[in-house]
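Example (one chain per record):
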Amino acid sequence: MLYCGERIGDGSYPKVDIAVDPLDGTTTIAQGRNGAVSVIALAGQGCMFDPGPCMYMEKLALGPGVDPELVNLSFPIKHNLKWIARSLQKPISDVTVLILDRPRHADMIREVREAGARIRFISDGDVAGAIEVAKAGAPVDVLMGIGGTPEGVIAAAALKCMGGSLQGRLWPRNEEERRKALDRGYQLDKILMTNDLVRGDDVFFAATGVSDGDLLKGVRYYSGGASTNSLVMRCKSGTVRFVETYHKWTKPSVTNLSDEEMEEMGELGHRMRAKSVVSMGAQRVGGAGHRLGSENGPW
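Predicted structure:
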């Protein structure tokens, strides 16, 4: 995990801001549940919002079919749901709201139900939930609630690539966080729009499923390797790609087998280890001088 303001790399072109969540849905995966993903977002240097001391924010995530000018975090929930329903040409009773199942959302849940909308709860992982809102034919129409601010920045990058939008408002957890935020000049009542969270259109986003979910399939293990299901998006071109990748443990530096497990595999394990050592030696000889990003271009 990267802390806010951490610098990585050698400083060569391109210089970018990176927001990463190696495991969005930590509790989910620890309990063997579905929906965990690993995510990363990139934008030009200085283009991503710095949450400072406020690690939580109120969020309102919308798909491309809803004009963000019609709804706002400062408006009543019933008002927002009414305009979301009109934009999607459906009654409020057919609008589904995605909400993190937390005690802090009790009043919001009550208001959504009083407005007549449906609710779908998630236990963790509101980055994947926000992306679900923007998918064509998605089972949910809007994400509401309080969640992590870094995850909000990542979700904003993803939604920007998909034509959706995200609004946020910083939510200090206690008086100490509030005081620190005010001392650093943060406006706690300001509604942060998508472009406040991620500026420009030179934005990239990628996610890989860890456990099965509505957005992506989880990691699949098989004899000698594994397969992963990923989503890769670019804002400038509007391209959204789903990638299925197959990994072989015999390739250099790509094994999760311990020496003990190799020994248990007997002769096959010895051949795999020998092949890996030879391949790694060849890579060191022939692969010197290559790096991601060069003076000739960004990738």
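Caption: The chain has a mean pLDDT of 86.
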